[in-house]
Specification:
- It is a single chain.
- By secondary structure, the protein is of the alpha+beta class.
- The chain has 2 domains: 37 residues, GTP Cyclohydrolase I, Chain A, domain 1 (Orthogonal Bundle); 154 residues, GTP Cyclohydrolase I, domain 2, CATH 3.30.1130.
- It contains 7 helices and 7 strands, in the order H-H-E-E-E-E-H-E-H-E-H-E-H-H.
- Strands 5-2-3-6-7 form a 5-stranded mixed β-sheet, with helices on both faces. A two-stranded antiparallel sheet has the order 1-4.
- Helix 1 crosses helix 2 and helix 3 packs across helix 4.
- The longest helix is centred in the middle third of the chain and has 15 residues.
- The protein starts with a helix and ends with a helix.
- The mean pLDDT is 90.
Length: 206
């Protein structure tokens, strides 16, 4: 479902008036349309099928080494994402680290960032975003386990309230075999390499 830019622009003009500003002054005259264009980008994932990028898989059992199946996880670190917190409509941004234990099929690595992008391009909370990414991958791929770690900075924490400019939030979502902390310990170490011990401890669930 496409964002109604005309309606968003009209509401932004009303909002500017509600805070005591003049939406017709030169500096604000184009702001409603600019905000509408930005929202069309920020919320492009509303109504979009997050599983669609995972529809095309690659068989590893019929590849150049047909007797070889993956023995370990597929891990993609450092996927940049940005989203908008549904509580204050302020942005949060960070990195997603995604791993899964494949069966006989894998997916192109470029598909995983697309899943993150679609689900992040909605009004969100970080905790739910990680769970949705994990559910989408677990439900769409031949996988024995999924692990998603998100590390993000929230403007509702850095700009208001306690204004903790250096605070970041780490969340974890796990499915299948990787739901056990011991089973995901090696992946957590790889995901949080260079992130510091605090992030590693929180992601590992210790």
């Amino acid at each position: 479902m496409a964002v109604d830019r005309e309606r968003v622009a009209a509401l932004v003009r009303e909002l500017l008036g509600a805070i005591g500003e003049d939406p017709e002054r030169p500096g604000l005259r184009l702001t409603p349309q600019r905000v509408a264009d930005a929202y069309a980008e920020f919320f492009a994932g509303v109504g979009e099928d997050a599983a669609a990028p995972l529809a095309h898989t690659i068989s590893v059992s019929r590849g150049p080494a047909p007797d070889t199946l993956p023995s370990g996880a597929v891990l993609l670190r450092g996927i940049r994402f940005r989203s908008v917190c549904e509580h204050h409509l302020l942005p949060f941004r960070g990195h997603a680290h995604v791993a899964y234990l494949p069966g006989e099929h894998v997916v192109g690595l470029g598909s995983l960032p697309r899943v993150v992008e679609i689900l992040a391009s909605r009004p969100q909370v970080q905790e739910r975003l990680g769970e949705q990414i994990a559910d989408t991958i677990a439900g769409s791929l031949d996988t024995r386990g999924v692990l998603v770690v998100l590390d993000a900075v929230h403007e509702c924490v850095t700009m208001r309230g306690g204004q903790q400019a250096d605070a970041s939030t780490v969340t974890i979502a796990a499915r299948g075999e990787l739901a056990e902390p011991a089973a995901r310990a090696e992946l957590i170490a790889l995901m949080t390499l260079g992130q510091g011990p605090a992030a590693a401890r929180e992601a590992a669930g210790s």
